[in-house]
Amino acid sequence: MKNKIIFLEFNGIPGSGKTTLSNRVIADMKSANYPVESYHQIIKKPSRKNLKHLLLFLFRIKPSSFKIGYLAVMYLITNKKLNHENWLRVISLVVLFDFYQKKNRDNVQEVILVDQGIAQQIISMLYESELIADKYAIKLIRYAKKKDLGIFIVNVDLDIKASFERLTKRKGNISRIQKLNEANAIHTLTIQQNNFNKIRKIIKELELESLNVNTQVCIDENVLLIENYIMRIQKQ
């Protein structure tokens, strides 16, 4: 394997169990003294409220990272979703990609789990809208693959109704979907799942390696499956 570092991106609809699963993998592998961490525990992103800090942060980003921002903006324009909230998502995507590049430069053997990666951001930008133009989604994913940064995908699936039921029991960080009634929430989750299917098809066609898991089964089974996947990647 060219890269010592592995970025494992988890994607799936809200309530499918991405964060729960990734946290279990981290805890399990850390208990075995394995170098694994969550992206959110490492990255030090500036506060959106501190504009000066944000501008200084962006000034230090590698120029090649801004191409992902340009592609993301074009993706939003072609899908008619260019708004204030999505501008912030574009910035998050640039910061994420820059983090990938800089960690690769460190040349340290490590596994970093990301539950808001490139594929997840692409879907989140649309939220409850159908993906109508995939040209720049393809360009985004192709550019990420071309950089050969050690990105691998875990497609997390769960029945839509089961995902909604999990969301109704979630406490703390309340998502937009949790504020909807059941019919509207199911409708939104269905749109997101359809969009994920389209993005996953692109990932497969571009031969970016991925693993499929379903969180309906025992979490221990999925944790073992992902750990074996990581070991297999490292042997490549």
Short description:
With 236 residues, this protein is of the alpha/beta class. 57% of the residues lie in helices and 11% in strands.
Give the topology string: H per helix, E per strand.
EHEHHHHEHHEHHEH
Distance between the termini: 5 Å
Largest sheet: 5 strands, parallel
The structure class reads alpha/beta
> If helices are DSSP runs of H or I spanning 4 or more residues, what is the number of helices?
10
Tell me the fraction of residues in β-strands, as a range: 5-15%
Radius of gyration: 17 Å
Give the tally of β-strands. Answer: 5
Question: Strands, helices and their partners?
Answer:
Elements (H helix, E strand, L loop, with lengths): L4 E7 L6 H14 L4 E3 H4 L8 H9 L6 H13 L5 H23 L3 E5 L3 H9 L8 H12 L4 E7 L2 H10 L12 H24 L4 E5 L4 H17 L1
Parallel strand pairs: 1-3, 1-4, 2-3, 4-5
Overview of this protein structure:
- This protein is an alpha/beta fold.
- The chain is 57% helix and 11% strand.
- It is built from ten helices and five strands; from the N terminus they run βαβααααβααβααβα.
- It has helices at residues 18-31, 39-42, 51-59, 66-78, 84-106, 118-126, 135-146, 160-169, 182-205, 219-235, and strands at residues 5-11, 36-38, 110-114, 151-157, 210-214.
- The protein has a five-stranded parallel sheet, sandwiched between helices.
- α8 crosses α9.
- It is globular and about 50 Å long.
- It starts with a strand and ends with a helix.
- The relative contact order is 0.20.
